[in-house]
Design a protein that fits this description.
63% of the residues lie in helices and 0% in strands. It contains one helix and no strands.
């Protein structure tokens, strides 16, 4: 998974939601 600095929060939230 490629997550940037700003996308880090968004990606983390997305992964948490999917989990």
């Amino acid at each position: 998974m490629i997550c940037g600095f700003l996308v880090s929060l968004y990606c983390g939230r997305f992964v948490y939601f999917v989990l």
